[in-house]
Design a protein that fits this description.
Distance between the termini: 42 Å
Radius of gyration: 34 Å
CATH architecture of one domain: 2-Layer Sandwich
Shape: globular
CATH class of one domain: Alpha Beta
CATH topology of one domain: Heat Shock Protein 90
Number of helices: 21
């Protein structure tokens, strides 16, 4: 594929679109606000509104000046989003608009636009469970053009889900393989959806309630950490499923608690399916605990929502009938053509009789070809299974390698501490023991000399041993002391690392009035310490800005320098710079780690850690 160059504004649009496809809504919104063109800014903001199920307010699309393929694709995507967001959606027109957008993206070989558009088509087919034979056509396009592991995780999610819906059986291993990819890509939304589906599979296919509960809760933890509207529906589904699970396990209090959490969610008025489902669950719950008044009420609610759902579905069906009427003239032409063809077929019946013998022969040959083809397919399937096993083993080996590296670091730290104890504190304690033995042996000996001096030396050795233990503990915590805390330790580190005119380090903090867990503070301090060390060694920077912001459940850390930067493409090929260790620490804390750097233009390191 040819490498394309883009202007500075183009790069902003593309970066925003990448953030949107990865469900990084807050970061995408920040980038979109910097785009100069108000129309293009509105088109991108509408993509966020569509994900978050908000009202779409596009510019005047008919008067919009389309200068690039990017503009054309976004216009057709917006048209499709409008038709599906109407009170009565028109899925045919949505599909048509999305397909036009995909055709433009394919004609320009633009991988980002191809993947973004293909995924919207797959989501449309998936949400309506229609035309299942089309899925694999778009899966092939997606697989050919996906640009990162986030796209790969999304593709594997839809593949496993569609296969499960077609074959009506569990796909546990497929979901677990997809989770490995989702974690590698840090696509938290898809990871949460995969955990949710694992819970469903364990609950309804394998009947393993404990495993189902475990995966439901893992999914819920991920979705609760993202305060966005588009996570509300999966949270609703998880709470409803947990309520059903606890109700079936005869745990009515837990069941009621989760049903109440589900009840708090608000959906668009047309979402009668979720409302009827919740009413049915509450009806069964109250009936089990013999609260018949409440059971009667929710049974009535269920019937109301269920009737509304049927009316809504009928309205959609009528919409489809109107679309068919638009093509009535073409259908008449088809009927006439069919009549003509039938007449020709009757005239040719005599010829068919003479062809029967040839058909029998052809069928025999076709059967042989079919058997041969099936045999080749079985061989190909076995080869694919072997390749999947190799890939799974490779991913597992990589994970084990990371764990080995972490354990090696811990072992190295233990060895260093053991050496300090032996070489530094050990000699002092040995001398102290000799003095005590001498004092003990001569305690009642009136002829012993210099006992007073020996007492003084022993007391001094005790003080020295205490100071050495205190120094080692101070070095172990690297300044994050119980009476000091993370923020003062970082400011002290910045003060010591700054050297007047050579390097200036500033620290800004927001919302860090209260202490964090000491283990977490030490881990964060270690990461910042490593980043500052890298800047001093490699960046030749003059100014460094460290920002720490507490967003209630998320700690955002930004370390920015004006140094010489580096090429991010060679980052993973290097073993040095300590970035691998930082990435492992962040991954261990279930956070995200991102580096934005360009040679000659400094480096921005962004770390987000749940707290």
């Amino acid at each position: 594929m040819l490498t394309k160059s883009f202007s500075q504004q183009d790069n902003k649009w593309r970066k925003a679109l990448i953030r949107i496809k990865n469900y990084e809504i807050r970061n995408a919104d920040s980038i979109i606000r910097l785009i100069n063109d108000p129309n293009k800014r509105a088109l991108l903001l509408n993509q966020i509104n569509y994900i978050e199920q908000k009202q779409i307010n596009p510019p005047s699309l008919d008067q919009f000046e389309t200068k690039t393929s990017f503009d054309k694709v976004l216009i057709f995507l917006t048209k499709g989003d409008i038709t599906i967001s109407n009170e009565i959606p028109n899925y045919s027109k949505t599909f048509e608009a999305y397909q036009k957008a995909l055709d433009i993206a394919l004609s320009n070989s633009d991988s980002l636009l191809i993947c973004f558009t293909t995924r919207k088509i797959i989501e449309l087919l998936y949400n309506n469970r229609k035309a299942k034979h089309l899925f694999f056509k778009y899966f092939n396009i997606y697989e050919k053009y996906y640009i990162d592991y986030s796209e790969k995780a999304t593709l594997e999610f839809y593949k496993a889900t569609i296969n499960a819906s077609i074959h009506q059986r569990e796909y546990i291993n497929d979901y677990k393989k997809a989770i490995v990819i989702a974690k590698k890509s840090k696509n938290r939304f898809i990871e949460g959806k995969l955990y949710q589906l694992l819970g469903v599979n364990f609950n309804y296919f394998l009947k393993e309630k404990d495993s189902a509960e475990f995966y439901y809760k893992k999914a819920n933890k991920i979705f609760k950490g993202a305060f966005f509207q588009f996570t509300q529906e999966p949270i609703f589904a998880i709470n409803t499923n947990l309520g059903i699970l606890y109700s079936e396990n005869n745990q009515p209090d837990l069941a009621f608690s989760h049903f109440q959490k589900a009840k708090k969610h608000t959906f668009p008025k047309k979402n009668y399916l979720n409302l009827s489902k919740l009413s049915s669950c509450l009806f069964n719950h109250y009936r089990r605990i013999k609260n018949y008044d409440s059971a009667f009420y929710y049974n009535k609610q269920f019937r109301i929502y269920n009737d509304s759902l049927k009316e809504y579905q009928n309205a959609i069906a009528l919409n489809k009938i109107e679309i068919k009427y638009e093509t009535a003239e073409k259908e008449k032409e088809n009927i006439l053509l069919k009549t003509s063809l039938e007449r020709e077929e009757r005239e040719q019946q005599i010829l068919w009789i003479s062809s029967i013998s040839l058909l029998i022969l052809g069928s025999s040959i076709g059967l042989l070809v079919y058997k041969n083809t099936k045999r080749k397919q079985r061989i190909a399937e076995q080869e694919r299974e072997i390749q999947i096993q190799k890939t799974e083993k490779l991913l597992k080996d990589q994970e084990l390698a990371g764990i080995d590296a972490m354990l090696a670091g811990q072992e190295k730290e233990r060895q260093r501490l053991a050496n300090d104890l032996h070489d530094n504190l050990g000699s002092t304690l040995v001398t102290l023991k000799l003095h005590f033995n001498h004092l003990q042996n001569n305690l009642d000996n009136p002829k012993a000399n210099n006992l007073e001096e020996l007492y003084t030396k022993t007391d001094n050795l005790l003080d020295e041993a205490y100071q050495k233990v205190r120094t080692m503990a101070h070095e172990k915590n690297s300044g994050v002391m119980a009476n000091q805390g993370l923020l003062p330790a970082i400011k002290n580190l910045a003060k010591k690392a700054s050297n007047g005119d050579g390097l200036k380090i500033e620290v800004q903090d927001y919302g860090l009035e209260e202490r964090l867990d000491n283990t977490l503070e030490i881990a964060i301090f270690r990461m910042i310490q490593e980043l500052i060390t890298n800047i001093i060694k490699h960046a030749n920077a003059k100014e460094v800005h460290i920002s720490l912001t507490n967003h209630d459940s998320l700690l955002n850390i930004i370390v920015e320098d004006d140094g010489k930067g580096f090429n991010p493409q060679v980052l993973h090929k290097k073993e040095g710079m300590g970035l691998k260790n930082i990435e492992k620490r962040v991954e261990h804390l279930e956070g995200t780690f991102e580096i934005d750097t360009t040679p000659g233009k400094g480096t921005n390191t962004i770390i987000n850690i749940p707290i």
